[in-house]
Amino acid sequence: MVNVMKNGIGVFLLLVAVCGAGVYAFGAHQPSEKQAVFACKHTDAEWRKILSPDAYKVLRQAGTERAYTGKYWDNHEQGIYKCAGCGQQLFSSATKFNSGTGWPSFYQTINKKAVLEQSDRSLEDERTEVLCSKCGGHLGHVFPDGPRPTGLRYCMNSVAMTFVKAPSGKKH
Ligand code: FE
Predict the structure, then answer these.
(1) How many angstroms does the Cα of residue 46 sit away from the middle of ligand 1?
(2) Is 150 exposed, middle or buried (CB count within 10 Å of its CB: 0-12, 13-18, 19+)?
(3) Cα of 138 to ligand 1 centre, how many Å?
(4) Boundaries of every domain in the chain
(5) Which residues on adjacent β-strands are paired with residue 162?
């Protein structure tokens, strides 16, 4: 009986240890995700060299450019918006709309894998942060008050993107 109890306690302690390790591993995975899983990775020193100071502030420090100051909020040309950090395609001009906010706004990403979304509690109202899925750069936020057909408003920072104009006659 004593042995059974000992074994029982042993199994219990083993389960606690395994579950604890599992919880720890899961918990530890979250904060490191931003640095660890992206295909395009650079050290902080490298990003500072690659990016302009303004782009660094937004892409790597989750800053926000002032409204109506960026180069794309009023851009009506047809083409593709790419990540200024890694060059990944993010948005097509075909889904850009005038949000009246002073930031380039889109109702849809160019494909479902282009961005990652995560909760941002840095302000009183919780927002959804949008990151480039290839380099983890902060692009802006997405809000549920956009136009049809998605009802979404991807509110982006111009400085986090590079616009590539479509060859004349080709629609994007
Ligand atoms: Fe990127």
Answers:
(1) 14
(2) middle
(3) 8
(4) 1-30, 33-165
(5) 82
The whole-number average pLDDT for the span 6-29 is 39
Domain 33-165: what homologous superfamily? Peptide methionine sulfoxide reductase. (2.170.150.20)
On whether the CB atoms of residues 139 and 90 are closer than 8 A, the answer is yes
Q: What length does the chain have?
A: 172
pLDDT single digits (tens) 121-148: 999 899 999 999 999 999 999 999 999 9
Taking the centre of ligand 1 as the mean of its atom positions, its distance from the CA of residue 134, in whole angstroms, is 5
